[in-house]
């Protein structure tokens, strides 16, 4: 199904190759999981197998790629698209339609698939991924996790021979991950070849036939066949990979009257929220009667996809209109003033990178920080070797780390993190935890939105749970 021979790829103006003499054969019906550090070449290899490289991206290609019986370099997008389904790392960047149902049928209609067949495929896919409540929604109103599920569904409706997925579990709740993996297992049972680039190995290991680790643009190790039972957590840790065991919260949850720091310390003043409501198209999307986010502690906001977690962060940052009062250290803080006191790492960090190089991005984010301190944070996140590259030329994981690096240098009172571990490998998870905990130690208000239990267990002091009705149920670890 996939035959890669001597593949080399260098993006235009890049100082080094992203792929270096890659040799890889994937037979029909196999489910292969690509792993490795951020920037190792996983996403670029998926792009090469789909035809995005070299047709959409500018650069130099050597070697050959044959996918689904087609020579990728010479085949047109229309022929490749009929045989391949692709889910990119940032789903919203691949949407074409305005509403969910139109996006789901977009590819099939463009390929001229019979309407009755489209209807049958659509019904089955919607059921597999529990998308019925979203069908009439506008894509722009969905949460990041909901958009992820729609992107996966839209890649499946035309029933491709090959399915390529880049970080499909990022931004998904545990229950949504179960739905997606169950759907992928059903797709696998039909004989479809599946290639998944993923850091959260515990989520996809049960359906993997083979595990390939990439490093520095090459295939470093190849476990074929792959069995989760014979791949220990110690082996994964030695290779810098995430655990194959599903992480669990370090502490149970218990009801309390507000989000407060654990450990017996008296929480310092911070952000308080009273009678907060947000509406969209006449419907309530967020309802938080009361919540506290103390200084010197990390408050995690958790809940199912679509519960309003990202909306809450946008409100706290002053980016979202709302009703209700928000105060910092007991003083009411209007939206405009909140924007000046807050630093935020968004889900799609490519939208918040503005400067011509990684070094400039860090320098402009924290102009009062010394060059030595900036260099240290780049080393901490493994970005020193790409300091002169354009931020948008980085991999998704590297962009995520750059946004975290700039946040780590911020001296603002409130730091907000929206799914910051998306695309982050095991080694860089350590650096991410250090940034979050350092911010709390210096006395900032730190609010973390994540579905990543490994990050929650290491970084969070308390949790604020948003239910499916977007109403806050405040709980505390203890």
UniProtKB/TrEMBL annotation:
Gene3D superfamilies: P-loop containing nucleotide triphosphate hydrolases (3.40.50.300)
PROSITE patterns reported in the protein's UniProt record: ABC_TRANSPORTER_1, ABC_TRANSPORTER_2
Domain of life (superkingdom): Bacteria
Keywords: ATP-binding, Nucleotide-binding, Transport
MF GO annotations: ATP binding
The ABC transporter domain, residue ranges: 2-241, 271-476
Cited InterPro entries: AAA+_ATPase, ABC_transporter-like_ATP-bd, ABC_transporter-like_CS, ABC_transpr_CbiO/EcfA_su, ECF_ABC_transporter_ATP-bd, P-loop_NTPase
Keyword ATP-binding among UniProt keywords: yes
Record-stated family: Belongs to the ABC transporter superfamily.
PANTHER family, per database record: HEAVY METAL TRANSPORTER
Protein's UniProt name: ABC transporter ATP-binding protein
Organism of provenance: Gordonia hydrophobica
